[in-house]
Amino acid sequence: MGGGRIDCYLDIASLFSYVAFVDLIGNLDKLAANGVEVEFHPVFLGGIMQASGNKPPWTLQAKAKYLSYDSRRAMASRGITNWASPPNLFELARTQSPLRALHHIKANFPPAALHATFTALFRRFWAPPHANFTDDAVLAATLAEVVDAKGQRVFSDEQVQSIMAARDGMKDALKAETGKALELGAFGAPWIWVTNEAGKAEPFFGSDRFCQIYNHLGIPHQDVQVLAPGAKL
Asked: Based on the structure, what is the number of domains in the chain?
């Protein structure tokens, strides 16, 4: 058995979207070998939260305290070391501009370009001093710095200008994709919609559900196991 697809709805302002993205990117080849297609969908988390009636976890003191532990552990589990929570996260979370740029890239460039851009935007957003992508100059500079696996620039200066100019035309695409996530039951990000080979689809929320996702897909994977003392790793 095996096969199916994973549709991952994410926003660069979501730390756990960052974790899920890194996890999936690191497994793309193996998932493809198992017949699983992966697609990333840029969505505006602020719109999802408002429409679903959800609230940011840091607005509840107990959750905010827990997040200081959970965020650190989640990022470390994926090897992400240069990061911190922005002190002005609420302001920086107005990510419509880079999300629209991602939609243009997704529609006009190969998937590898989208993946490299997501990587660059996540890094710049979460690594100090935390890029403010409401500033067009900051977004353009980041797009110019996007590199592929060989360290080569993905976009020329002309392409960066074209992407920046095309963002207004992507408003409806971002709105539609955010609406689609809401139709699928999203109340936060990452929202992961998984369809197995038999066509059965189920939602998964967060960055720590991959064992359950792979069970649903019916593909081989290793789950967490407690070993006997002295067992060989």
From this structure: 1
Each residue of 35-46: pLDDT tens digit? 999 999 999 999
For 195-210, b/e burial (b = at least 16 CB within 10 A) is bbbeeeeebbbbbbbb
CATH code for position 152: 3.40.30.10
**CA-based max dimension of the chain:** 60
Q: Mention every residue, 6+ apart, whose C-beta is less than 8 A from residue 193.
A: 6, 7, 9, 184, 201, 202, 203, 204
Helices (H), the chain: 15-26, 28-33, 45-52, 61-77, 89-92, 96-108, 111-126, 136-145, 157-166, 171-183, 210-217
Give whole-number Cα distances, 32 to 93, 112, 115, in Å: 32, 14, 15
> Model-level pTM greater than 0.85?
yes
Q: Confirm whether 230 is domain-assigned.
A: no
Does the residue 102 lie in any domain?
A: yes
